[in-house]
Design brief:
By secondary structure, the chain is an alpha/beta fold. It is built from 25 helices and 16 strands. The strands form two sheets. The chain has an eight-stranded mixed sheet with strand order 1-8-7-3-4-5-6-2. Strand 7 (222-226) and strand 8 form a beta hairpin. Helix 3 crosses helix 4 and helix 4 (103-119) runs antiparallel to helix 6. The radius of gyration is 26 Å and the shape is globular. Residues 149-157 and 588-592 have low confidence and may be disordered. Bound molecules: phosphoenolpyruvate and magnesium ion. Phosphoenolpyruvate is lined by residues 299, 301, 340, 437, 458-461, 508-509.
């Protein structure tokens, strides 16, 4: 019989599939008190389960690559920290030792206790952190269960399933998405949660707060997940299915319309050519970049090669990775960024300094590379060798002042001399560029331009450093806003300085791939955008609707606003007026 459950849309879209229930909160726990002589053994079981959960998170981290890894790793780190939280661990030990709870019961007690504390908080953000605690403890409970049951209760979705769960950890979601999961219906949770953010970037429809989902849906029930309306329809009728088909048709038309843009030029409505580059780390990214007509790779983050690796990758391992990237792009320019370890990019290679009070302001990026010239030289040699296979540019992260670029150039020169002595082929020229992501570099950009052949603006970090707001902290959303006037003025300053010096300036932070900011970046004079290849067609489509000259006319006004709200209002006005003009002129979208 058809029935309908309603929830809050956390990620838009629709999906039809079989239900797969996960009920971590319902694991049966043995509530009989422990006998004195059992305590030691049970404590060991508890700690073994904690270790397993830590290990699982580490493994998960190792399996994720590219932009997704960056996003998910933040969540994994938060969960790993919780697993090492002294108070949480002490509380668990006490429950077993003093309260004579069995490990499963102790974990459940601790989970319920902490959930209640978070639930009572007024702040919706803090309330939503309750999910992290629950997800972490559920992972340990699950590990504990597996010690006794030979059957691994691993989350391993089969293709065509919709996950019905209390809530889901971001790491599990990333893994499931790779296994063909179609969507998620969560009975609790909020649209602020890490999982919801991730579902949006994975393109997985998701509902949260779908009360009673676990008691009203059964394994293998057919579910129509309508995360446009906020509904999960159990046993959908023919009418529901025809609505789904209509949605699918529209989505397919839109997909086909965009696909045609793969071979279209990237041009604004008034005919200004714009460069679209890809941020690419994997062979899948490279294939997608080419299929969507990227003009090259604007950012290859080499640190992922190091983070994936146990120990340091050798010169040959690096050379092969860079060479394959260069060859994969078939003659289009590739921008290889030197190592940017430190801060949020945890260091599996063991290079970053331990115990820094403030790692984001510490020895990261080029600062770290220059501290380890031998490690850096290995990377430089690999890049030089790979650059014989196609056009390569080298990008230096976290540059603050010119002497860092000078030092990098010197290391390149020395590496060239060594390679020449070894009779190894060398590229003729290798442009060296600076990431502009430290405020000092942005303000003093003219000095850097004397030593840099090109610039790439990293707004992810530039925004966090200009605004003193951690880029990974959801509680600072109101501050960490790309429309902050201080940031806009800096962007304009850097772009204009690059233009005056006749040196290319691209922007490779997340906003480059967000169509909500395309008009803004044109207004500021940007001509080269570098983004996740999945965004290229949407941005090309957007650019074709925008009038470059018209937008540039409003740049001065934009740079006079006092607040990000004013910047947003101005941007909306300008874009709406331009769209109205588009319609009056009866202009069609360039490729239909
Ligand atoms: C940036 O900071 O905007 C950037 C592209 O670099 P990353 O995100 O790798 O720090
Ligand atoms: Mg950065």
């Amino acid at each position: 019989m058809r029935h309908l459950l309603t929830g809050t849309v956390a990620a838009h879209g629709m999906a039809l599939g079989r239900a797969r229930l996960v009920q971590p909160s319902r694991y049966t726990v043995d509530t009989r008190p422990l006998a004195e002589e059992e305590i030691e053994v049970e404590l060991q079981r508890l700690h073994q389960a904690l270790d397993t959960a830590r290990q699982e998170l580490r493994e998960l981290r190792g399996k994720l690559h590219g932009a997704l890894a960056r996003e998910v790793n933040e969540f994994i780190d938060a969960h790993s920290l919780l697993l090492d939280d002294a108070e949480l661990l002490r509380g668990l030990d006490d429950l077993v030792k003093v309260g004579h709870y069995r490990p499963g019961a102790a974990l459940k007690k601790q989970r319920d206790r902490l959930s209640a504390v978070f639930e009572a908080m007024d702040d919706p953000y803090l309330r939503s952190r309750k999910e992290d605690v629950e997800q972490v403890i559920n992972r340990v409970i699950s590990a504990l269960q597996r010690q006794t049951s030979p059957e691994e209760r691993k989350l391993a979705a089969r293709v065509g399933e919709i996950l019905i769960a209390d809530n889901i950890a971001p790491g599990d979601m990333a893994q499931l998405a790779g296994n063909g999961l179609l969507g998620v219906v969560a009975s609790s949770g909020s649209a602020y949660s890490h999982s919801a953010i991730l579902a949006r970037s994975l393109g997985l429809p998701m509902l949260v707060g779908t009360r009673d989902a676990l008691s009203n849906i059964h394994d293998d029930d057919l579910i129509l997940l309508d995360a446009e309306r906020g509904e999960a329809v159990v046993h959908p009728t023919a009418q529901d299915l025809s609505r789904y088909r209509a949605w699918q048709r529209e989505a397919a038309i839109e997909g086909r319309r965009l696909a045609k843009l793969a071979n279209a030029p990237t041009r604004t409505r008034d005919g200004v050519d714009i460069g679209l580059l890809a941020n690419a780390e994997t062979s899948i990214d490279v294939a997608m970049a080419r299929a969507r007509g990227a003009d090259g790779v604007g950012l290859y983050r080499t640190e992922f090669l190091f983070l994936k690796h146990k120990g340091l990758p050798s010169e040959d391992e690096q050379f092969i990775a860079y060479r394959d990237l260069v060859m994969g792009m078939g003659g289009l320019p590739v921008t290889i960024r030197t190592l940017d370890l430190g801060a949020d990019k945890a260091d599996a290679a063991g290079l970053s300094l331990r115990g820094e009070d403030n790692p984001a302001l510490g020895v990261r990026g080029v600062r770290l590379s220059l501290r380890y010239p031998a490690v850096f030289t290995t990377q430089i040699r690999a890049i030089l060798r790979a650059a014989c296979y196609g056009p390569v540019r080298v990008l230096v992260p976290m540059v603050t002042q010119p002497d860092e670029l000078i030092a990098v150039r010197t290391l390149f020169k020395l590496a060239r001399q060594d390679l020449k002595r070894e009779n190894i082929d060398l590229p003729e020229k290798l442009p060296l560029g600076a990431m502009i992501e430290v405020p000092a570099a942005a303000i003093n950009v003219r000095a850097l331009l004397e030593y840099a052949d090109f610039l790439a603006i990293g707004t992810n970090d530039l925004a966090q450093y200009v605004l003193a707001a951690d880029r990974g902290n959801d509680a600072l959303e109101n501050i960490y806003n790309p429309l902050q006037p201080a940031l806009l003025r800096l962007l304009s300053h850097v772009i204009s300085a690059g233009r005056r010096a006749k040196k290319p300036v691209s922007l490779c932070g997340e906003i480059a791939g967000d169509v909500n900011f395309t008009a803004l970046l044109l207004m500021l004079g940007l001509c080269e955008f570098s983004m996740h290849p999945g965004q290229i067609l949407q941005v090309r489509d957007r650019l074709a609707t925008l009038d470059h000259a018209e937008l540039r006319r409003h740049a001065a006004r934009l740079l006079r606003v006092h607040t990000h709200e004013q910047a947003e209002a101005l941007l909306n006005d300008v874009v709406n007026a331009s769209e109205a003009l588009n319609q009056c002129a009866g202009r069609e979208r360039p490729v239909a």
